[in-house]
Amino acid sequence: LILGLLINSAKSTLDSVDRNVHAFAAGLIMLDRWLQHYGAEADGARQRLLAYAKHAGLVIQDYQGTASDREGERMLNDVGASIDALKPQDAERRALVQSAQQQFVRISELRWLIVGTTRGTIPSPLVALVVACLMLVFASYAWRAPSSPAVIASFLVASLLLTAAIVLILDMDRPFTGPVRVSADPVLRAALDMGH
Questions:
Q1: Rounded Cα–Cα distance for residues 60 and 118 (Å)
Q2: Which of 80, 128, 150, 195 has most Cβ atoms within 10 angstroms of its Cβ?
Q3: CA–CA dist 37, 32 (Å, integer)
Q4: 191 φψ region: left (φ > 0), alpha (ψ -120 to 50), beta (else)
Q5: Residues of 108-121 as b/e, b for ≥16 C-beta within 10 angstroms?
């Protein structure tokens, strides 16, 4: 039961981060569209946004569980400063800048939501407690069980399956590392779309 709850929690984390990455990519495209509608004066902001989108996609794709992305944070702040530096002359452009600023805030929020989930959400002491309980259960069954090949084989298979479940839980709980991971494709596709 506990393993089932942990798998459900890890899967929820993975799905949530995947949704956030897709929303982040869509937000990048929408911000690019707002800036594109603004006109040629926003080309500098669009180029900074495109450079940031490429950088963010590569960071997600190559994440190794190490240091924070200070370069990406700086690049995103430069995009925000470029949007704030726009001087709209009419009501339509003021509305475009306001929409772009709101979209920028949403992208920044999504970025921090994604960054906040890189380390996982399942506490290590809980995993250690589950492993200790499973060891105790297996030890108590093994102590009383007859030493026939069928019993030994079933204990080995059960222990391997439980180990695989725990590894899967830990892997899904850290959505940017390991074989089960969130794809960077939405952000990379957004950068490709923005480049055209």
A1: 10
A2: 80
A3: 9
A4: alpha
A5: bebbebbeebbebe
Residue with tokens 């180029």: 47
Distance of CA 50 to the CA centre of its chain: 20
Contact 130, 6 (CB under 8 A): yes
Residue 130 CB neighbours (<10 A): 19
In angstroms, the CA 62 to CA 48 distance is 21
For the chain, helix, strand, coil in percent to 5 are: 80, 0, 20
Angle between helix 2-38 and helix 91-116 axes, rounded to 10 deg = 160
Q: What is the mean pLDDT of the chain?
A: 89
User: Quick one: how far is CA 118 from the chain centroid?
Assistant: 6
Q: How many CB atoms lie within 10 A of CB 7?
A: 16
Per-residue pLDDT at 190: 94
| pLDDT value of position 32 | 95
Gyration radius of the chain's alpha carbons? 24
Tens digit of pLDDT for each residue in 53-102?
999 999 888 876 555 678 889 999 999 999 999 999 899 999 999 999 99
Token reading at 81: 């400063």
DSSP secondary structure letter of residue 123: -
Question: What type of residue is 125?
Answer: P
DSSP 86-102: ----SHHHHHHHHHHHH
